From TrEMBL, chains A, B:
Known role: Catalyzes the first step in the biosynthesis of NAD from nicotinic acid, the ATP-dependent synthesis of beta-nicotinate D-ribonucleotide from nicotinate and 5-phospho-D-ribose 1-phosphate.
Entry EC number(s): 6.3.4.21
Residues annotated as domain Nicotinate phosphoribosyltransferase N-terminal: 25-149
Family: Belongs to the NAPRTase family.
Species assigned in the record: Sulfoacidibacillus ferrooxidans
Start and end residues of each Nicotinate/nicotinamide phosphoribosyltransferase domain: 177-342
Span of domain Nicotinate phosphoribosyltransferase C-terminal: 382-490
Pfam families in UniProt: NAPRTase, NAPRTase_C, NAPRTase_N
Keywords of this entry: Glycosyltransferase, Ligase, Phosphoprotein, Pyridine nucleotide biosynthesis, Transferase
KW Nucleus (keyword) present: no
Protein name: Nicotinate phosphoribosyltransferase
Molecular function in Gene Ontology: nicotinamide phosphoribosyltransferase activity; nicotinate phosphoribosyltransferase activity
InterPro entries found in the cross-reference section: Aldolase_TIM (IPR013785), N/Namide_PRibTrfase (IPR041525), NAPRTase_C (IPR041619), NAPRTase_N (IPR040727), Nic_PRibTrfase-Fam (IPR007229), Nic_PRibTrfase_pncB (IPR006405), Nicotinate_pribotase-like_C (IPR036068)
Catalytic activity field: 5-phospho-alpha-D-ribose 1-diphosphate + nicotinate + ATP + H2O = nicotinate beta-D-ribonucleotide + ADP + phosphate + diphosphate
Length: 501, 501
């Protein structure tokens, strides 16, 4: 491991959110019973390849922003069993002492390739490809899926919401803060969700633990209870700007936005000016945000507060935000809670972990899982994924066998793996391989990017998609095809599987 | 604190899931800026009462099972700021050193009343009532809401799913295991979600961390990848029962349930019998579960495996389970993942935390938050909640002011707080006060129940509801009324508030 890589993983693993995690048992019981089965039948050392992929985009979206790899890397780097965990497993009465001894010595020694966080990805693409002893790869399935599914889901949802603030024009998106802690599905959902939301384009979070751990900007000013705890709204405003003259964003809807909140904000804004400060903004958290924001804008402008921002919150989601903007709402920023932090409407990404190949007598034997549903038949073999760019736009992806040569500019004929008559010739392209090495034989070989790097990268990635693929409803379906050798292998294995029970 | 209470909180706080948590910063930034505002304006010591309540039942349900109190108690008991957290807050450039000093010495010293975990509760009822310094009560809002919202949501969803297995007859519910780890919204959602699901009536979880921490039964056998990793299905079955002859539940749908899985299971079942064991069950994870289970049942019965259970999984939820049972599916148990662990369809409970009263010159001044939406107007004052039982069935709840006398058997006229012409006289009742003391001046006074006690209590609580209130769609709306003094207070404050800005 190079010094830079080692330093970076040390920095990350020292974050309080990662420190002190006991994650050996963060798995489904059947992983342990299967591991015991492999142990009992002398097959622990069997080398295999598993792929993490998902079958359909969440929320009718046209893509996913993958996220969660950092959490996976920390987990794989430190997964182990503590004495109290071994004792618990012993108490279940399922396992013998030899097996528990194997767990005591457990560490992850596999090889991992993954698509970096912030990348745009599509159904059926291996997001993480893990190679190693089946004994280890069985244990880690549940946690790896949990982390990748959760963070990718929230990052994707965030891109939908942030794009809605500007009708899909990425460069014009308004600042959007993640406000969901109180409605999150417990603490990790809030904290890792805030991280994922930031990767997906949010500008800040209200969640201080997320700010503390991940160096995400934090934002927030006051609640209705603050206003109520004073005898009048203007006293509450004055007390707030007394504490934070440089961060004066005032919540104006506790009593009546247009007849109380905005007039009082203007009064306090003039007092602030006299002290050399500026009224940064007002927040409206209820009522008709389109009507109120337009009226408030006029009132503020008329009093010389043209730069004072109007921030909206109140159970917003991408649909409401889009409708508000279409109605000409004068909103400069958004706070989004429940809908973002739970990915309301699509609260799970269905990532799966499937056996792709098995080593027998030194060579890889591709494995397949058949199903009556053609979309559920897995892609066999150890694979890689490449992306073709034409004029800097992502044009199509190709899933190939690992041993295949990557095209270098020659025209390539792509065909739909289900409806093979659909063909497309691609030329004048550049090409990028998506999976990069993360672990080799249990050693980290990847210098983990900072969250700012990941967030910037996600923005660049989004910009490589056509606006049709980024459309929130009925998006253009991006081409993800199989190489001819992979397609033929799959066809042959399906045909053969029909006869093997 | 009594010795029993102290011992119990020590036991609970020692659970690895609670140990080593750093939760001082698990809050929204605006709580800290408001705390700073109180500090700067000399109002830190202001005593207030906040209520935790929600406004509508999730998933069109008729009730909520409240859960999460244990997590709240542990949090309140240990919430503090570590040196690295103070340093982070300093780095934000928002706060002065005097304030950071206050945080260094922060501990919770308030008084808490709460409705015990496992209780059936309804909209607008204070589930947790917290009294203390506004400086402390502001900090804890976000985490308290997060825990109560999440665990109550999942416990409630679990009751919907478990009841669906027997058409709503609680006593006849089939064992239902929580299988959602891989689709949970990160680790805590999986682990605390498994706890809540168990409280709500699930019989076990696949999540080993949840089993380890909370002593929940764990279950699970093998995945498709186990079957695939052998050259044939029957070899895979034999290897599994070799490892676990006493826990033989075989996954029979990898290739073909009726032509391969069940015949192979019967062969292995006969081999098991010859060794003195029994084939406990088969699991079907794909295909038409109604058709397949009926056909499989016949095949098993015909070969003398009448006691072998048929377990179903495959993206189940309460609606699918109900439909399967209505179609006569022969299913003895269920594994439910995504829909349960994310509460798909309703992934957040909208619990809020609202100021109810403020102490001024030694007496409590009730506080209200008005809104154009009558359902959003808060109930003012320090309150309690009582439940009337008639013939052992919960008949109505009454929210009262804390100083009111609880009725002792005399006829009581209840009226709907919004549509006051709706009246109901209740007599021949018994009465229970729902809020119980948890903390007094920062000291725990509550002996925390075990999870088995909570789960049994939840089952008893459900049984106090009519089947009409437990109906999954369009349930009977349970009566939650306000006492006349509370209603009058609210009316007067609303009238007065109209003139105070």
């Amino acid at each position: 491991m190079s010094a830079n890589i080692a330093k970076r993983i040390e920095e990350i693993a020292a974050m309080p959110i990662y420190r002190n995690r006991q994650e050996g048992l963060l798995t489904d019981l059947y992983q342990l019973t299967m591991m015991y089965g492999f142990y009992k039948s002398g097959r622990m050392e069997q080398h295999v390849v598993f792929d993490v992929f998902y079958r359909s985009n969440p929320c009718d979206n046209g893509y996913v922003i993958c996220a969660g790899l950092e959490q996976v890397v920390v987990y794989l780097n430190q997964v182990a069993f503590q004495p109290d965990e071994i004792q618990y497993l012993r108490s279940l009465g399922l396992f013998d002492e030899g097996f528990l001894e194997e767990l005591k010595n457990f560490r992850f020694t596999g090889t991992v390739y993954a698509i970096p966080e912030g990348s745009v990805v599509f159904p059926h693409e291996p997001l993480v490809r893990i190679e190693g002893r089946i004994f280890e790869l069985q244990l880690i399935e549940s946690a790896v899926l949990c982390f990748v599914n959760h963070q990718s889901l929230i990052a994707t949802k965030a891109t939908r919401i942030v794009q809605a603030t500007s009708g899909g024009v990425i460069e014009d998106a308004h600042p959007t803060s993640e406000f969901g802690l109180r409605r999150a599905q417990n603490s990790d959902a809030a904290v890792f969700g805030a991280r994922a939301a930031y990767i997906g384009g949010c500008s800040s979070t209200s969640n201080v633990t997320a700010g503390f751990n991940f160096a995400i900007p934090v934002s927030g000013t006051q609640a209705h209870s603050w206003i109520q705890s004073f005898d009048s709204e203007i006293e509450a405003f004055r007390a707030y700007v007394h504490a934070f003259p440089e961060r004066a964003i005032l919540l104006v809807d506790t009593y009546d936005v247009l007849h109380s909140g905005i007039p009082n904000a203007i009064t306090v804004g003039n007092e602030l000016r006299a002290q050399g400060y500026d009224l940064l903004g007002v927040r409206i958290d209820s009522g008709d945000l389109a009507y109120l924001s337009k009226a408030a804008r006029k009132m503020l402008d008329a009093e010389g507060f043209g730069h004072t921002q109007i921030i909206a919150s109140d159970d917003l989601d991408e649909d409401t935000i889009r409708d508000l903007m279409l109605q000409g709402a004068k909103l400069d920023g958004f706070g989004v809670g429940t809908a973002l932090i739970t990915a309301k409407g699509c609260p799970a990404l269905g990532g799966v972990y499937k056996l792709a190949a098995e080593k027998r007598d030194g060579s890889w034997i591709p494995r397949i899982k058949v199903s009556e549903n053609p979309l559920k038949v897995t892609n066999p073999g150890k694979k890689k994924v490449i992306r073709f760019y034409v004029d800097q736009k992502a044009s199509a992806d190709l899933i190939m066998l690992d041993e295949e040569t990557i095209p270098q500019g020659e025209p390539v004929t792509l065909f739909d793996p289900i409806h093979t008559y659909k063909r497309k010739v691609i030329q004048d392209y550049t090409v990028k391989e998506l999976l990069v090495p993360i672990f080799v034989d249990g050693e980290i070989v990847y210098e983990m990017p900072t969250i700012e790097q990941i967030r910037s990268f996600a923005r660049l990635e989004l910009a490589t998609l056509s606006s049709e693929t980024r459309r929130p409803k009925n998006p253009h379906v991006y081409h993800v095809d199989l190489s001819l050798p992979l397609w033929e292998l799959k066809r042959d294995l399906v045909a053969r599987r029909g006869h093997v029970n």
